[in-house]
Amino acid sequence: MSERSVANSPSCSPTVATSPAAARPVAARTRLLLEGPVLSTLLRLSAPNVLNLLAIAGMITFDGLFLAQRCRADSACRWMLRR
After folding, report:
1. How does DSSP classify residue 27?
2. Within a domain: residue 15?
3. pLDDT (tens digit, 9 = 90+) per residue, 43-83?
4. Taking the alpha carbons of 34, 36, 37, 41 in that order, is the dihedral positive or negative?
5. 22 φ, ψ to 5°?
């Protein structure tokens, strides 16, 4: 094949296909994520994860305090508190 036939072939033509999805307008929430301020977007998206982290840390703290309270009265579980 010559260079002319390759350049003129329909499979290599630089046509852009427009799809119905590309013609739809972008939702306001999506636009806010893409064009809004970065710091407030990151804080808003990370808030559920931070709350989950705090809940787990609170549960672990309560569990440790509960075991310490129980082990003070009962010498059978002192092996858990040994270093």
Report:
1. P
2. no
3. 999 999 999 999 999 999 999 888 888 777 666 666 666 65
4. negative
5. -75, -25
Residue identified by tokens 């799809």 is: 19
Which residue type does 28 have? A
Where do we find the tokens 């064009």? 35
Tens digits of per-residue pLDDT, 10-31? 555 555 556 665 667 888 888 8
CA–CA separation, 7 and 1 (whole Å):
10
Identify whether the C-beta of residue 81 lies closer than 8 Å to the C-beta of residue 68: yes
Q: Are 60 and 68 in contact (CB under 8 A)?
A: no
Range of the domain at 25: 20-80
* Residue 6, in any domain of the structure: no
CB atoms within 10 A of CB 32: 14
Q: How many domains does the chain have?
A: 1
| 11 falls within a domain | no
Q: How far apart are CA 73 and CA 66, in angstroms?
A: 11
